[in-house]
Specification:
With 129 residues, this protein is α+β, with helices and mostly antiparallel strands. It has one domain. Helices cover 46% and strands 13% of the residues. The protein is built from 5 helices and 4 strands; from the N terminus they run ααββαββαα. It has a 4-stranded antiparallel sheet. Helix 2 runs parallel beside helix 5 and helix 4 packs antiparallel against helix 5. The chain is globular, with a radius of gyration of 14 Å.
Length: 129
């Protein structure tokens, strides 16, 4: 990706969302569509220094030890973590996908289908496309 960062600091909704930025910045262009596709169906992903985890990704033991949450948990191996809701996650997905499609317009239709699937799966009525 030509841009150094997928999400700029000024685009964070809250400074505590830094793990979201850090994790998405780790994703290689060749994997981004697969990662976004997984997220649209509630499947997290991992990178070398962190992971995105949905409640359904947890095994039975972890579900017993964790308070149920809506959305996704983004955690870095340094211990920094945050749980964000589906609306906030869509905000970041939209930013990331918009930048990605500007660089790789041949994937715009596929990416838009995935974003719409995400909105449908999580019953979002976002103002963004």
């Amino acid at each position: 990706m030509k841009n150094k960062f997928r999400i700029d600091d000024k685009e964070l909704l809250h400074k505590e969302h830094f793990p979201v930025k850090a994790l998405f910045d780790m994703v290689d262009d060749t994997r981004l569509i697969d990662v976004i596709k997984g997220i649209s169906t509630g499947m997290g992903f991992g990178e070398n220094y962190g992971a995105c985890v949905f409640w359904n990704d947890l095994d039975d033991y972890d579900k017993e030890m964790t308070i149920k949450y809506e959305g996704a948990e983004f955690g870095l191996h340094n211990g920094e973590e945050v749980i964000i809701g589906y609306e906030d996650l869509y905000h970041y997905l939209f930013l990331i996908c918009d930048k990605y499609c500007k660089e790789f317009p041949e994937y715009a239709e596929q990416v838009n289908i995935i974003l719409n699937r995400y909105k449908y799966n999580y019953l979002l009525s976002c103002n963004k496309k």
